[in-house]
Amino acid sequence: MRLTNYIIKRLLLLIPVLIGVSLIIFTLTRITGDPAAGYINEKMTQSQIDQIYEKYHFNEPVYTQYVYWLNGIITLDWGWSKTYGGPVTDAIAYYFPATLELTLVSIFIAIIIGIYLGIASAVRRNRPFDHVTRVVSLIGVSLPIFWLALILQYLFYFHFGWFPSSGRASNVYYLTKSIPDITGLYLLDSVLVGNFALFKDVLWHIFLPAVTLSFGTIAVVTRIMRNSMLEVLSLDYVKTARAKGLSERSIIWKHARKNAMIPTTTVIGLSFGGLLGGAVLTESIFSWPGLGRWSATSIKLFDSNSVLGFCLLVAIIYVLINLAVDVLYAYLDPRVHLE
After folding, report:
1. Do 265 and 220 form a contact (C-beta atoms < 8 A)?
2. Where do the CATH 1.10.3720.10 domains begin and end in the chain?
3. What are 200-240's pLDDT values in tens digits?
4. Which one, of 258, 263, 269, 220, lies nearest residue 114 by Cα?
5. Do residues 313 and 291 touch, judged by C-beta distance below 8 A?
6. pTM score, two decimals?
7. Which CATH number does 88-332 carry?
8. 87 - beta bridge partners?
9. Which ranges in the chain belong to alpha helices (H)?
10. Taking a C-beta distance cutoff of 8 angstroms, is the pair 38, 303 a contact?
């Protein structure tokens, strides 16, 4: 019951946060250009343009425009996406599964590799493995994602020919319409219908963009996990466990790892939101048909409704992930009180 009350309280506190975020996003899009640009084309007459201004309240004060826009957000009328050629909500529903799938694979790679490297580096402190891991982590944090994407694309597509350079699946699956449309996540859908040839093809297509997107997160998770693990390994209960004769493997993976995961959980949660919102460069370079590529195109065309929708969606995801991380904290650390 306490957990339920805590979640309800946090969800209510998210309302002013989201209103503040929406105010910032709305103001930025209004001061950077004409909000009607997404509705106007060259073939329209001045009379038709005037009707658009009147219909969407663009000829009214900014605060009035915000009230109408916020009302549309609440009623799921997020405006028209010129880039997509339909409602913004339809565009998000169309592009979101691709970005979500890429993000899930990326964060999975980052969690598995980052946690293992962090623990292994802490256990082998000041040994060659630890030094190499720290150098690689520093490179991962500093490396521009677009540069890494181009290098991986050159090596594994142009030079070795091991992986495809773009898209979510081979063209033959699109031409034969053999891609199932259940959840929009091709890897999951291919398993659900038992098409493992498609699963392998999709996995091959997602590998390079997922590795590119996860590289920086791997570096961050590794560094946080290493520092946290070193701190935990110096605590009295670990020394007591060693004195009792428990195996080093049991101490590390069964006792120390869970406590070391507490600060790492925050990083992983925030990184997930960051990957969703930061996939713009990766999706553009690998021609991945997701939210990032759609938002980049929308910015070029000054499609303000699409940009607003994308930013607001990322903000909502961020605050919900923060809530999920706080609740997970209570599971990992019984000392945390939900109030």
Report:
1. no
2. 88-332
3. 999 999 999 999 988 888 988 998 888 888 888 777 777 77
4. 220
5. yes
6. 0.84
7. 1.10.3720.10
8. 80
9. 2-31, 46-55, 62-74, 88-123, 128-142, 145-153, 171-175, 186-192, 196-233, 236-243, 248-250, 257-277, 280-285, 291-300, 304-332
10. yes
